[in-house]
């Protein structure tokens, strides 16, 4: 058994068999090889993406399929046609007659909702178990290039009890295929979908003969790029205009007006900083949008400093209005700011 934080236990797994372990008949098929379990994830929709909490909700289906010779003689009779059980009847069959393993959704938050389920028994011995589910999942997101970022939404699945000596995942699939249904989520463009077969190793202090247990794991990944229209026109463009507007202080004649414009626009940029902090989690690194805001601080501050130096050098006279320093900075600041913006964009774009 894996050792799991008890506070997360309720939200970590899908219990496919409610009380089967108390019945000695309900055991996995006996074999020299581990049971091969195929699994498919069909996604209807990914929604309610929360950047602050790094969570997202998924509406989808999970289908498990494996082979169990025992179902060919269902309830003491040879099975000649496919039997399908749904919802409460399916649960009753799993609790009393058919062995169904339990699984963990490793990155789920809270509990999972399963409104529908079914189990199919085939004369060949094939068992298919389907569930419809709704759940909130989490994964570590990379916001370095936000709002031009690309994220990977994951669903991570492991057996709850049986390690690789007894069960392994094979042939995982994620559906629908990308070209058939590209808009599984709004405000994002799906770039790729893939599955990964991995293994996790856990300590097993209760059994000195097997101090480590290895569990098969399947990872479903949906890679998507954020649609930047909202952030581009509602956040970055106004911020760009505000910072560019701060350079008018080099064209204004009155020193007090220069300072007033500079400090007012500085406070406006501070408001953008509060907004960016409200839509992102606390991060140990700088994002693209935060870096742009910092660059805005620097340029506005340097502009204020420049007019103060100009005033000290030339005084509050007509000479200060025609000073070579202001005439040079009228063009140097906008050009330097544009170069900084494009350089940062390409720098952060490479880090995606």
TrEMBL record:
A Pfam family per the record: Neur_chan_LBD
Lipid bilayer topology: Multi-pass membrane protein
Cellular localisation: Membrane
Transmembrane segments: 230-252, 259-276, 288-308, 328-348
A single Gene Ontology CC term: membrane
Any GO MF annotation of the entry: extracellular ligand-gated monoatomic ion channel activity
Domain Neurotransmitter-gated ion-channel ligand-binding: start-end pairs: 29-226
Keyword Lipoprotein: no
Protein name in the entry: Gamma-aminobutyric-acid receptor subunit beta
Species for this entry: Maribellus luteus
Taxonomy of the source species: Bacteria, Pseudomonadati, Bacteroidota, Bacteroidia, Marinilabiliales
């Amino acid at each position: 058994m894996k050792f799991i934080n008890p506070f997360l236990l309720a939200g970590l797994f899908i219990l496919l068999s409610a009380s089967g372990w108390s019945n000695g008949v309900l055991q996995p098929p006996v074999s020299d090889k581990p049971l091969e379990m195929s699994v498919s994830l069909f996604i209807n929709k990914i929604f309610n993406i929360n950047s602050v909490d790094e969570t997202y909700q998924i509406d989808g289906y999970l289908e498990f399929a494996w082979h169990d010779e025992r179902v060919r003689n269902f309830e003491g009779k040879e099975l000649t046609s496919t039997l399908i059980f749904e919802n409460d009847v399916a649960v009753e069959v799993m609790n009393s007659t058919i062995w169904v393993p339990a699984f963990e959704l490793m990155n789920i938050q809270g509990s999972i909702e399963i409104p529908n389920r079914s189990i199919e028994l085939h004369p060949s011995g094939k068992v298919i178990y389907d569930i419809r589910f709704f759940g909130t999942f989490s994964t570590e997101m990379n916001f370095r290039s936000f709002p031009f970022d690309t994220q990977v939404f994951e669903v991570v699945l492991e057996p709850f009890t049986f390690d690789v000596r007894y069960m392994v995942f094979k042939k995982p699939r994620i559906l629908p295929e990308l070209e058939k249904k590209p808009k599984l989520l709004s405000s994002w463009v799906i770039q790729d979908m893939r599955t990964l077969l991995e293994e996790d190793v856990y300590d097993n202090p209760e059994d000195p003969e097997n101090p480590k247990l290895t569990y098969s794991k399947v990872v479903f990944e949906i890679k998507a790029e954020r649609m930047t229209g909202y952030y581009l026109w509602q956040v970055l463009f106004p911020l760009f205009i505000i910072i560019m507007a701060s350079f008018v202080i080099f064209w204004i004649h009155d020193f007090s007006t220069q300072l007033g414009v500079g400090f007012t626009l500085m406070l406006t940029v501070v408001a953008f900083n509060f907004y960016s902090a409200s839509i992102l989690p606390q991060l140990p690194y700088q994002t693209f949008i935060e870096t742009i805001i910092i660059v805005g601080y620097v340029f506005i501050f340097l502009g204020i400093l420049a007019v103060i130096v100009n005033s000290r050098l030339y005084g509050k006279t007509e000479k200060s209005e025609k000073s070579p320093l202001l005439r040079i900075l009228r063009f140097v600041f906008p050009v330097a700011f544009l170069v900084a913006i494009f350089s940062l964009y390409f720098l952060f774009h490479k880090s995606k």
